[in-house]
Design goal:
The complex is a heterodimer of chains A (about 300) and B (about 325).
Chain A (H helix, E strand, L loop, with lengths): L1 H7 L14 H12 L3 H18 L1 H4 L40 H37 L1 H16 L2 H12 L3 H28 L2 H8 L4 H38 L10 H9 L8 H28 L6
Chain B lengths: L1 H28 L3 H5 L6 H10 L6 H13 L13 H36 L4 H15 L2 H15 L12 E3 L2 E3 L4 H34 L2 H8 L4 H38 L5 H10 L3 H29 L1 H6 L3
Antiparallel strand pairs in B: 1-2
Helix pairs in contact in B: 1-12, 5-6, 5-8, 5-10, 5-12, 6-8, 7-8, 7-10, 8-10, 9-10, 10-11, 11-12
The chains are: A mainly alpha (about 300), B mainly alpha (about 325).
Chain lengths: ~300, ~325
């Protein structure tokens, strides 16, 4: 943008002639920058593909692992590539209950994505509220809220989530709740950090002096300016929520195998680790790894693009 | 300074107290441990007696008060599963966890710091890029899955190392540890590698970032102008300057290593405190859960307190600025 201004020369004298940045151009610029890393683009394609197969699982997967009637014990422990009683090839083999691993992974991925994204979104919303409130009001409110946030941040998320799941019990909702409590603090800290910088600026001062309600100043004036770092944290947190859920399920305090998530599939496969049935745990793990790494790679590139210190 | 320490100390005590209430209520709100403990065929009388024996017929606030009273006397209750004192149980498991954490931290340091130095010294080389890619993997791939792959590769396929458990325990300087025997080492090495990977990724990134920044500073330029070799500059100038932040962050991370030990210990059936907490959650062994959790809270509050005091000592703005 600044290139345009300097090459034409005369625009320098007339600042109002600078190109107006609408939401659409900003998005286009963002995409142009994002595209520069082919690794990130590849990772994005992988994520879209995984989302498609997981949420389209009922259409793509050869079997419904939730439906106990479609499982046949005759099909138990088929090696990858064998054909089962259903008459189709089990590309990734079957488990001890005769579940087609590929189908179970697609459905499991769906559970993992649902948990990861909803936990991330909820934590983001709560974290923004806490962070903005602290930064806007300052004083005692700020020190109390941020002390709590800091204390939580000093504890590893896995420990916090483990304790919460132990208290709340098993199930999708419980896990999401536990993850939200364990993760909102990251968003609160980021929001607070960015907002304390913004609140000293004139436009906030100006907005505060108008009779606009506090809520409006917070969400319409302050929030849009602290969004970029939050987007970065959000991608990283979705990935870590997925990994955390898998870890909890693996430890046996997450989801039961009747509601397969990637973690519970791996946990089930772990029981057969000594009997050469590697496919039970390796394949769900590979999908988990690819998912988490792909999200992190995209997050890395988003961070690079949004970094204000980056020279254009 | 003294006022600052006192106010932070009071805060710390309040936090521990509040957390103990939260933990107690949270843990005691779930399930009924009596159902887990006794034979379903037991008579109602035995049941009643047991409930009374554990004080479970009392209202929750009274249970909490009697718990506090016992804690003041150093008694955190008896495990419902092992039927021994909880404090004794936790402390009997602690050495196993500590030796695992110790070896893991040693591995992370010995490999992580040189790798980070190299990656920061030649940031554009293929080796540096490979190191960074590996550190990203160490960060993002869940610990339990890597642990499982290690077992598959080295225990099941190759058969070089045992897949779990703690080996023979010998003594070094009167301390019982499996690091005293070869068999013990063969058991500790896989879980320790597993536990070290996350720390290693962190160390590599920290060291690299410090190196890259230090290479552009004036003191390095002066050292170059003086005719020192790169080796001398890295080892006697840069390393000394970047070691302080690395040690700080790494010290802070020790607490989280204990937490990650929960996962590694479960994968490798390592009989430490991490395995103990998972087992007690699954078996609803409330006294053990409460004790472990309160100990963890105290540990983290202590770490936070120390950091606050040290930073306040180093940077006056911290104690003057209050919350910010």
């Amino acid at each position: 943008m600044s290139d345009v201004a300097t090459t034409t020369g005369e625009t320098l004298a007339v600042p109002s002639a600078a190109p107006i940045e609408t939401r659409a151009t900003r998005l286009r610029n963002f995409w142009a920058d994002f595209r520069r890393s082919w690794v990130a683009v590849g990772a994005l394609i992988v994520i879209v593909a995984l989302l498609a197969v997981s949420f389209g699982a009922p259409l793509v997967a050869p079997q419904n692992p939730y439906d106990m009637a479609s499982l046949d014990w005759m099909d138990a422990f088929l090696t990858p590539g064998e054909t089962g009683t259903g008459g189709y090839v089990h590309i990734l083999g079957t488990d001890n209950a005769g579940r087609d691993m590929l189908s179970a992974i697609f459905y499991g991925l769906r559970t993992s994505f649902t948990i990861g994204v909803s936990a991330g979104a909820l934590a983001l919303a709560i974290g923004i509220c806490v962070g903005l409130t602290a930064a806007y009001f300052g004083g005692r409110v700020e020190s109390l809220l941020m002390r709590i946030v800091d204390l939580q941040l000093s504890m590893p998320a896995i420990l916090l989530a483990l304790v919460l799941v132990a208290m709340l019990g098993q199930g999708v909702v419980q896990i999401i709740l536990a993850l939200v409590v364990a993760q909102y603090a990251y968003f609160a800290r980021t929001t607070h950090g960015a907002a304390t910088v913004e609140r000293g600026k004139d436009y906030i001062e100006a907005a505060r002096s108008t009779p606009l309600p506090t809520r409006r100043v917070l969400f319409r004036h302050l929030l849009p300016n602290v969004l970029p770092p939050l987007i970065v944290v959000a991608t990283v947190q979705v990935a870590s929520a997925i990994a955390l859920e898998a870890t909890l399920s693996f430890l046996g305090v997450g989801l039961p195998l009747t509601e397969p998530s990637l973690g519970s599939l791996i946990s089930n496969g772990f029981k057969y680790i000594h009997s050469d049935r590697y496919w039970l745990s390796i394949y769900p793990g590979l999908f988990l790894m690819v998912t988490v790494v792909a999200i992190n790679l995209v997050g890395d590139q988003v961070r690079t693009v949004l970094d204000p210190r980056r020279s254009r | 300074m003294l006022g600052f320490i006192v106010s932070r100390l009071i805060q710390a005590i309040v936090v521990v107290f509040v957390m103990s209430v939260v933990v107690f209520v949270g843990v005691y709100a779930i399930g009924n441990p009596i159902d887990v403990m006794i034979d379903p065929g037991a008579t109602a009388e035995i049941r009643e007696n047991l409930i009374r024996q554990y004080g479970l017929d009392q209202p929750l606030w009274r249970q909490y008060l009697s718990f506090l009273g016992n804690v003041a006397e150093g008694d955190l209750g008896r495990s419902m599963v092992y039927n021994t004192s909880v404090v004794g149980l936790v402390f009997s498991r602690l050495p196993a966890t500590l030796e695992l954490v110790l070896v893991a931290v040693a591995i992370a340091t010995v490999i992580g710091i040189p790798a980070g130095i190299y990656a920061g010294y030649k940031p554009d080389s293929a080796g540096a890029k490979a190191i960074m890619a590996l550190s990203v993997l160490g960060f993002s791939v869940p610990t339990f899955w890597i642990g499982m792959l290690l077992i598959m590769a080295f225990a099941v396929e190759l058969g070089w190392l045992p897949s779990g458990g703690r080996g023979e325990v010998g003594t070094i300087l009167g301390i019982p540890t499996s690091l005293a025997t070869a068999n013990g080492w063969s058991h500790v090495i896989l879980p320790a590698i597993n536990l070290s990977l996350f720390k290693m990724g962190l160390l590599i990134r920290l060291t690299r970032a410090g190196m890259v920044e230090a290479m552009q500073t004036d003191y390095v330029k002066f050292a170059r102008a003086q005719g020192l070799t790169d080796r001398q500059i890295v080892f006697s100038h840069i390393l000394r300057n970047i070691s302080i932040p690395i040690v700080t962050v790494f010290g802070l991370e020790l607490g989280s290593t204990l937490a990650f030990a929960v996962v590694t210990e479960t994968v490798f059936t390592w009989p430490g405190v991490g395995k103990l907490i998972i087992d007690s959650i699954l078996q609803l062994d409330r006294p053990v859960m409460v004790t472990y959790l309160i100990l963890v809270v105290i540990l983290f509050v202590l770490i936070n307190f120390t950091v606050d005091v040290v930073y306040a000592r180093l940077d006056p703005r911290v104690r003057l600025g209050g919350s910010r």
